[in-house]
Write a structure and sequence with these properties.
The chain is of the alpha/beta class and 490 residues long. It has two domains: 258 residues, ABC transporter involved in vitamin B12 uptake, BtuC (Orthogonal Bundle), CATH 1.10.3470; 206 residues, Rossmann fold. It is built from 17 helices and nine strands. The chain has a five-stranded parallel sheet with strand order 6-7-8-3-9, with helices on both faces. A four-stranded antiparallel sheet has the order 2-1-4-5, covered by helices on one side. Strand 1 and strand 2 form a beta hairpin. Helix 2 runs parallel beside helix 5. The chain is elongated, with a radius of gyration of 25 Å. The termini are far apart.
Length: 490
């Protein structure tokens, strides 16, 4: 009973950490800024280190100041991404704050021990007062995110939202981290943010399901880690971090085995297309996030080579619909069939390969691997789809688009018009059945807009592909006989 009473508060602290950090982990993974937590937590660590020199009673003040400063810097990272790789930007922020903390603690009489405290925390020694204050802070942030959940999910999953929404997101995250780092240390906070969400995403796509799996794994591993730490008299945070990492690799192995068995047992079902049948058919589709329906599409049918324009104001759900038609989001209900294949029968790597071969996607902003050249990005698209890398075909396509001379250039060095042509090349390199475009012309002038539309229509006609374009750009309406207008979020 004495052991239970002693370990109760550390367990409650871990439970609170898991509840909030697994949620933020979904956002961080989806944004592709994996090490933002580590960088921001280490930035807060600089504030904690300063408090050792100027008085521990100022720890909270210094932590909050550096947390909010870090949030502002990260909110500006989208602008920095125009010039440098975003993960490199975050990495520089991390090594700066890490080095600064070491330099500050070097002036402290017990610098090494204090540095270990920042990294590992002291979760075994949390008090009821710590639990209560943590619950209040996390609860307030949770309420804020629940009230603004649609806007935060649109920010993460659709890239919709400006500097102020980003600042609010990172500021609320920073406030959580101030409490978390002081209680559990940087290592454990980072592992609670990333690993449970990673495990959840191995098996599910819907955020709620990912969250439930993340919470379950985090709770189980926390119980084991705290118990082992107490019994073996070893640091708690490293035990929990190592256990979470081991759990991830075990779950990854299980996922690989499950998928291998599924692929061996189930051969792809090819449904013969009837003469004159639909290439793309949508029935009773509801799309959104968790239990929030963004929009509904009762029916849509396109034959081969038939095009469709989806019109609607910003925030009406166009991007969410396109992400669902592309197989990137799982619909809340309904079914999508492309060339006789139901999306409901495609999961994991099967869906990824199907998408790579049959669906070309043109995003609002350029999504290329910045370390690769234009030509290498096209070859990567072929490789990812499980197709042979055809260098001659890629160069021929670039020639047709008038940018063959840019084949050895990095994407970020190109002009906006050239980047748009590269995006078209990447979307059409595998002769897809449908080409999905999200606002491909809205940022272009009239001449560039007309040129892009002509290129899209030409390339679609070459492979008899269907164009599905979502936009609020009225200039391209005349190119489409079939048009759908969708309203605001429901």
């Amino acid at each position: 009973m004495e052991t239970f009473n002693f370990l109760l508060y550390p367990f409650l602290a871990c439970l609170l950490l898991i509840l909030i950090h697994a949620y933020f982990g979904i956002h961080i993974l989806e944004r592709g800024i994996i090490f933002v937590d580590l960088a921001l937590a280490q930035f807060i660590g600089v504030g904690i280190a300063l408090s050792f020199l100027f008085g521990r009673e100022k720890s909270l003040l210094f932590s909050l100041v550096f947390a909010l400063l870090g949030a502002i810097i990260l909110s500006l990272s989208k602008r920095a991404a125009r010039y440098v790789n975003i993960e490199a930007f975050i990495g520089v922020l991390y090594i700066f704050s890490f080095s600064a903390a070491i330099l500050i603690l070097d002036k402290s009489p017990h610098g090494l021990e204090e540095f270990k405290g920042i990294m590992n925390g002291n979760i075994l020694w949390v008090t009821p007062k710590d639990i209560l204050s943590t619950a209040v802070i996390y609860g307030a942030v949770g309420i804020l995110h629940f009230i603004l959940r649609k806007r935060f999910f649109a920010l993460t999953f659709e890239g919709k939202g400006g500097f102020l929404m980003d600042l609010l997101f990172f500021s609320s995250f920073a406030v959580v981290l101030v409490k978390s780092v002081n209680m559990a240390g940087i290592l454990q906070v980072f592992s609670f943010l990333v690993v449970p969400a990673l495990i959840g995403k191995l098996f599910f796509k819907k955020p709620l399901h990912v969250l439930l799996i993340g919470w379950s794994v985090g709770v189980v591993v926390s119980v084991m880690g705290i118990f082992l730490s107490y019994k073996l008299d070893i640091p708690t945070a490293p035990v929990i971090v190592a256990s979470l990492a081991c759990m991830f690799f075990v779950m990854l192995g299980i996922k690989v085995i499950m998928e291998a068995l599924t692929n061996k047992r189930l051969k792809p079902i090819i449904v013969p297309k009837k003469q004159g049948g639909s290439m793309l058919e949508v029935n009773d589709l509801k799309v959104g996030y968790e239990d929030t329906t963004v929009m509904e599409l009762p029916h849509l049918s396109l034959s081969s080579g038939e095009h469709c324009l989806i019109l609607g104001a910003s925030g009406s759900g166009k991007t969410t619909l396109l992400s669902t038609l592309s197989g990137l989001l799982t619909p809340l209900s309904g079914d999508i069939l492309l060339d006789g294949r139901s999306y409901n029968d495609l999961h994991g790597s099967n869906m990824d390969e199907f998408r790579g071969r049959h669906i070309g996607i043109i995003y609002q902003t350029l999504h290329m691997v910045s370390a690769l050249t234009v030509l290498e990005n096209l070859l990567l698209a072929q490789y990812a789809a499980g197709l042979p890398q055809d260098r001659d075909k890629a160069i021929s396509l670039l020639e047709h688009l008038g940018i063959a001379d840019k084949k050895n250039d990095k994407p970020e060095t190109l002009s906006q018009g050239q980047q748009q042509r590269v995006a078209i090349a990447r979307a059409t390199i595998n002769n897809p059945k449908i080409i999905v475009g999200d606002e491909p012309t809205s940022a272009l002038d009239d001449n560039a807009c007309e040129t892009v539309m002509e290129l899209l229509l030409q390339l679609a006609a070459t492979s008899n592909a269907s164009l599905v374009i979502a936009t609020h750009d009225q200039r391209i309406k005349r190119h489409f006989h079939k048009q759908i207008t969708i309203g605001g979020a429901q």
